[in-house]
Design goal:
This protein is mostly helical. It has five helices and no strands. The chain is 56% helix and 0% strand. Helix 2 runs antiparallel to helix 3 and helix 2 crosses helix 4.
Length: 108
């Protein structure tokens, strides 16, 4: 998923509790779903960042050859400016983009 196109806030934002728990009817269940999605988003972003930073990796043992790579710094700054995974997950939740199911309902 392309996280750069989601208009999630970068700063802390207050959300209406009724909008968050509306799909499930239970705020704790909604927060649990959002938290699991935030964990997934975080691991995807981390994997993508590590792949991009691995391109700049040098495997020399010499400390004299360590230098600042401007491209590497720009990539790192770009990922630092992205919204937090929680904000991305909440935006997905409010836009009804997260699929979830209650396993207790399917067992009965």
């Amino acid at each position: 998923m392309d996280f750069k196109k989601i208009d999630a806030p970068v700063n802390t934002t207050t959300y209406n509790k009724n909008l968050i728990d509306e799909p499930t009817g239970n705020i704790y269940e909604a927060i649990s779903i959002i938290a699991k999605r935030a964990t997934q988003i975080n691991s995807e972003i981390k994997k993508e960042l590590l792949e991009k930073l691995d391109e700049f990796a040098t495997y020399n043992d010499s400390l004299d050859e360590i230098f600042e790579n401007k491209e590497q710094i720009e990539v790192s700054k770009f990922y630092e400016r992205l919204p937090k995974p929680q904000a991305l997950a909440i935006e997905e939740w409010l836009e009804d983009k997260i699929y979830y199911r209650n396993t207790k309902d399917t067992e009965e």
